[in-house]
Amino acid sequence: MKKTAESPEIALLREVTTAVARGRDVAKLLDDVIGILEKRLGMLRGTVTLLEGDELHIAASARILNAEERALGRYRIGEGITGLVAKTGHTVVVPDVRKDPRFLNRTKARRKTEAVSFVCVPLVHLGQVVGTLSADRAIRPGMRPLASDVALVEIVANAAAEAAAAYRELRAEREALEGENRRLRALLGDNPGNLVGNCPAMKQVYEQIRLVAPSDATVLVRGPSGTGKELVARAIQTLSPRKDKPFVVLNCAALPEALVESELFGHERGAFTDARDRRIGRAEAADGGTLFLDEIGDLPLPLQVKLLRFLQDRTFSRVGSSEERRSNVRFLAATSRDLEDMMARGLFREDLYYRINIFPIALPPLAERGDDVVLLARHFLQRLSAKYGKKIDRITPSAIDMLLAHPWPGNVRELENCMERAVLTAQDDCIHTYNLPPALRDTAPAEDPAPPGASLTLAEQLAAHERRILEVALRRHNGNRSAAGRELGVTPRMMTYRLKRLGIGG
After folding, report:
1. CA distance 230 to 219
2. Which residues of 389-405 are buried (b: 16+ CB within 10 A; e: fewer)?
3. N or C: which end of the chain has fewer CB within 10 A?
């Protein structure tokens, strides 16, 4: 049977629907739609604009636009043909742009003498105008009726409207994220050292660091394991007059008891088995700078006596030597232990406790730091994405809920490890719930609907994503729709419409 030739109109619609069905990159999809109009209908200068607030911005164009042209190609609602279409939601056809004063030619893409028609149709998604699709058609004898092409462009616009809405939502989300990142960076600018956090307890820590750093006072940093005690010590050193001098660390819990004294004060050759050479200790290496003893609660009792003597007059002797040496150091210490309980049980010397507890700084556990979890997660996301050469800049609302619900027994260190796993397993530019460790899912309120490749339509995925964004915003503002709408940049009317459409709040 002889195959019937496909009409140009059917070929156009088949190509557009295929592109829409297979398109995953919505920005490329919009470019493809414009290219199909050019190839199949001979349309020129195809352009997609998207509505942002009360202004239309060019999202896709048949030709590459420079920054100046993009800036000029903006239209307020009701302004020019494009603005009129966005305002009324109706197609406008200009048979000859040379004879219609409404046509602005703002990007100067057309010559004043160029004979072209202009077609502009609205992109309507869920009853709302989200942008426009427009193109030129040359005026030449023998061409097919303009009305036929207009009808086809309207069909194409209907097919592409969902993709345009998706692109608009993604761009709005990205811009909101960039704005939030700018705000967070501004907040972080006041944080000393590499500390990240903005909760009241951390603000108090920052203030204490600034107060004590300029002095030579001994500081005891207290807090559960993994809260960042060494970062506090480094921040103190960075803000101190000794910032350009050595910063030497000794973790008392990381070494066998027999080696701690040698690591701290050094040893002479032959002082003990395997002591083949003389070695200076951390106290001597830190001369002029800062000595930081982490987990000082694990220091053996005999060495506590020697450390007390060192703190009193900054003198010590290497193991295997009676020669007295001096080291001018700023002393900082940290512990996750209950030193008061250890004193009561005779495991920590009372006189040493009072010597090191001159200026205590208490770090809160991560579970008590509220939204700092999200702040820290995004901080680690940015750093680890760069480390592993990935471009990941978002965390889904469901994943954020999961992070906030977890109790974080391992504190900031556990969160950093969690984000490293998420970055390593991420397949796109976003961290989803299924990228987080399984341990977090036991406390998760909700998971992302499906991993990449699941059989959900674009509309279903966008609706689920929009629902989570709105629900999270409402929770942050205790159900206050107006406050949540202001945060998301949505008018009260549109907020009510979106909530009603998604069945949120009854």
Report:
1. 12
2. ebebbbbbbbbbbbbbe
3. N
Confidence of residue 21 (pLDDT cuts 50, 70, 90): low
Residue with tokens 């004063």: 101
Q: Report whether 367 contacts 408 (CB < 8 A).
A: yes
Note the pLDDT of residue 247. Answer: 96
Residue from 345, 338, 251, 350 nearest 305 by CA? 350
Better-scored residue on pLDDT, 411 or 18: 411
CB 97 within 8 A of CB 45: no
Kindly list the structural domains of the chain, giving each domain's residue range(s) and its CATH number in brackets, ordered by start. 8-164 (3.30.450.40), 177-188+370-502 (1.10.8.60), 200-364 (3.40.50.300)
Location of structure tokens 């609706």: 463
Mean model confidence pLDDT for the chain: 83
Binning pLDDT at 50, 70 and 90, where does residue 475 land?
confident
All residues at 6 or more sequence positions from 163 whose CB lies less than 8 Å from its CB, including other chains: 20, 23, 26, 29, 30, 33, 458
Extract the runs of DSSP E, i.e. beta strands, from 142-295: 219-222, 247-251, 266-267, 279-280, 290-294
CA 403 to chain centre: 14
How far is the C-alpha of 491 from the C-alpha of 506, rounded, in Å? 19
